[in-house]
Design goal:
47% of the residues are buried. The chain is α/β, with parallel strands linked by helices. The strands form two sheets. It has an eight-stranded mixed beta sheet with strand order 1-8-7-3-4-5-6-2. Strand 5, helix 7 and strand 6 form a beta-alpha-beta unit. Helix 4 packs antiparallel against helix 5. It is built from 22 helices and 16 strands. It is globular.
Amino acid sequence: MFHGIPVSSGIGHGPVLVVGPRSFQISSVEIPQTAVDDEIQRFKRALVKTREELKAIQKELCRRAETSDAGIFDAHLLVLEDQTIIEEVTRLVAENRINVEAAFSQTTERFISALNAVEDNYLRDRAVDMRDVADRVLGNLLGGGTTDPTRNLKVPSIIVGHDLSPSVTAQFDREKVLGFATDVGSPTSHTAILARSLNLPAVVALHDVSSQLRSGQDVLLDGYDGIVIRNPSESDLFRYGELIRRHESRDHELEAIRELRAETLDGVDVELLTNIDHPDEVDDVARYGGQGVGLFRTEYLFLNRGTLPDETEQFEAYRNAVQGLEGRPLVIRTLDLGADKVAAALPDAAEANPALGVRAIRFSLAHPSIFIKQLRAILRASAYGPVKLLYPMVSTVEELSRANELLEACREELKAASVAFDAKLPVGIMIETPTAAMIADVFSREVDFLCIGTNDLIQYGSAVDRLNERITDLYQPTHPGILRLIGQVVDAGARENVPVSVCGEMAADPVLVPLLIGLGVRALSVSAPLTPQVKDVIRKLKMASAEALAQSALAAVSSEEVMGNARALLNRIAPDLDASST
């Protein structure tokens, strides 16, 4: 039995097909001056062919899956148009007189290494996207193209590999592929997102499963709990057959409540919002029963490219998101990156400890020209529907004041130019550090709303890198100290009549949702596919039970005690949800 991270629910049972990573043997070869133009033309033809391939994959994905996730390949296409990459490859060919394969490989490896070096899992996933594009271009340069490893499958199988690229995953035929498992990966990767779109059970982060299994072996893949079983027994197959029937019944139940409000049994409303990373994802808000977007992460605009986006590009992205929501609210978070994560555009910005360095609002204030473009773009988009502006990781009043000064200057500029915007645009801050939580009463008098980012609040509050596998047991959402910080923020907001939402992973955990509501949280923002199960928990909850759980948690001395009580409550109100697996 192999344990990993479930990223797409479902059960798959069948033979394994182990696929190896695609590798290229690329040598740097000196070329004569007379061959330089031919090499550059060959490069351009490879880019065109790769674009045609990706467009075809995107079109086919739109046909096969009723989803906006085909927009994932917009980022891939942008890599092909990135002038920094194109110019650098051309320069290496012309000046160093080397073959274009070597020039392209050297250039893209530098970008990929920069993304892989950062601590943020989301950004490391973007390195996979760039690798995907680079491999396709190299395949076309070398004349081999890019093949689908499942094309010649005779029997429906479970695909196992070290990693799978988004463009390969998007081509999987549901009739041939029963699911997939990989050594590496994360729930935020584009490969995982596509698995969910295609309804393919998938488990990632299995470490060495690709070397432990052999093609043809019989396996059972559990996309609910993140388990792969080699040679499952009859009792395993019977147990999972029962599990499939239970989940099918539950899926019907969740579908029935999609249009209903997220309110407790005693009539307390909870605003249930959606986290998105791209404008194309706004369609998923209504699809899964969300009430709007509680967190639009704008980082995608700044990644996988050598130049920063201008105001117009950002404005169009934000406007598209606003219009796509058709009147539902949209909270746009300003850039939450550090200098290390846009290193391609700011090559001299390396830091020894980026997590504690110039990131989020600190980065924006340190680079006002970048920040102003984003503020102006958000203001302009606010003319098209209900928009709120959110500053990330604000820890001092001075940071908030400086950000608002720049925002006011942008307002004056747009007003002078007769450009429309919402003059009453609500402004809020992310509470992600203990110091910010401790002065939430001060912030509540200065902003229109607060948003608690529990992922970073736990990380900074507990001094635990949540991506460090050696200390993951210390990353505890139910630590009484963390819960007291959350309670303190909620209470401060309530005293000033300032709404407080939660947008971290805690908000999407069915075990912890009653605890957050008991602490006074009345707005949760989660990834779209998790909306139905969170709504289901809320609709089965009584406030008396939630408040009693919160009171006991604030008085507790250990995380285990709080978690045990939270699991017990979930099992009482929603016994069909297996609390042990969440």
